Amino acid sequence: MTTAAAYAAPAPKAPLERTTIERRDVGEFDVLIDIKFAGICHSDIHQVQEGWGEAIFPMVPGHEIAGVVSAVGPGVTRFAVGDRVGVGCMVDSCRECENCEAGREQYCVQGNVPTYNGIGKDGEPTYGGYSENVVVDENFVVRIPDGLSLDVAAPLLCAGITLYSPLKRFGAGPGKKVAIVGLGGLGHMGVKIAHALGAEVTVLSQSLRKQEDGLRLGADHYYATSDPKTFEELAGTFDLIVSTVSAPLDFNAYLSLLRTEGTLANVGAPEEPVSLNLFSVIGGGKTLAGSMIGGIAETQEMLDFCAEHGLGAEIELIGGDQINEAYERVQASDVRYRFVIDTATI
C-alpha cells in the first residue's frame, strides 16, 4: 500500500477536509496515475449528502480524472509511463455478462465498481479523484488525445460521455432538431457535442441569463422554460430532447415538445420520483428514455471526437481549499461551467 493526500468527506453532509488515504500496490494489470486535474460533478455532491441513498464514509469524491501514468504493472500492454490518461465513473466490472461483453460496462449485470463510494474486488472502499494519485486496472483507463489539455479534458470523463452517449444513440446529427434542457456542467457539453454532430441545437433553460453563452457554445436557439409561451411555440418541434437537470420536471410539458416518435432522454437524476401521464407518451408514439455515462470504448470514442473538434469543457480552476465553497456554488448554479481541482494544491 502507498499513501496519498486527498480531500474527503468524513461523514454525510460534512465539509470535505484534507486527509491521507491508502492506495493499493500496483498489480500486474494496474496503472498508477499521477492525477493532475479532477472535475467536480453535481453527483459528487449528491453522494456526499446521501441524496441517492446510503453511502460509504470517509468518501473521497471525484470521477472526472485526468493525469499522467507514473507506473505500470508487468502485464500492462495498453499504457506506458508518461502517457496522458483519464478515468471516469467506474474502475471495474464483472467483465463477463452480456453488457460487459458488448462494451456497456456501465450497465454491468452484477453492477460496475464505481470510482468512489464503492467496494472494489479486493473488498476495500474505492476512493476518487480529489487526490494525488489513483491505481486503476488498465481496462478502465482511457487515453487523452494530445489535442486536449488535461484541465479541460477532465470533465469529459463524466459530463462529456454522459451527453455523447445518448446523442449518438438517438441519432443527433444533420437534419435533426435537438434540445438540451439545462445549461450547466452537463448541458454545456451537450450543446457543444450536438452542434459538432451537425444537429440544429436549442437550449431550454429556466431563464435567458446564459443565452449569450449558449449561442457562443454552439446553440442555434435559446428559450426560457419559465415563459409559458415557450411550450406553445415549440410544441411538436424536436426529434430529441436530452434533460440534464437533477430537479423534477413537468415531463408531460416536455414530451409535448417532441415530434411524432421523438425521444426525451434523461441523464439528470432527481432525488425524488416524478409523475407522468402516460398519454403524453402514447399520443405520438414517443419514447421516454434514460442513459448513464458510457462504456470504456465509447468513452475513448468521445475523447477522440472531442479532440478532433476542439471540444473541451468550460472550466473554473480551483485549489483543494476551495472545494467546499465550490460545492455551495454548484448548488447555487454559480459556475460556468465546471469546477476543476488543480490537484497540485492537494
**Unreliable parts:** none
The coarse silhouette is: globular
- Strand elements, count: 17
Query: Beta fraction of the residues?
Result: 25-35%
- So how many helices? 11
> What sequence of helices (H) and strands (E) makes up the elements?
EEEHEEEHEEEHHEHEHEHEHEHEHEHE
What composes the largest sheet?
Answer: 7 strands, mixed
Helix content: 10-25%
Structural class: alpha/beta
Describe the protein.
This protein is α/β, with parallel strands linked by helices and 346 residues long. The chain is 24% helix and 26% strand. It is built from 11 helices and 17 strands. It has helices at residues 42-48, 98-101, 150-153, 159-169, 185-196, 211-217, 228-233, 251-255, 279-282, 296-309, 323-331, and strands spanning 2-8, 17-23, 30-39, 65-72, 84-87, 90-92, 113-114, 133-137, 142-143, 177-181, 200-205, 221-224, 238-243, 258-266, 287-290, 315-318, 338-342. The strands form 4 sheets. Strands 3, 4, 5, 8, 9, 16 and 17 form a 7-stranded mixed β-sheet that branches. It has a 6-stranded parallel β-sheet with strand order 12-11-10-13-14-15, with helices on one face. Strand 10, helix 5 (185-196) and strand 11 form a beta-alpha-beta unit. Helix 4 packs across helix 5 (185-196) and helix 4 packs across helix 10 (296-309). The longest helix is centred in the C-terminal third of the chain and has 14 residues, at 296-309. The radius of gyration is 20 Å and the shape is globular. The two termini are 20 Å apart. The mean pLDDT is 96.
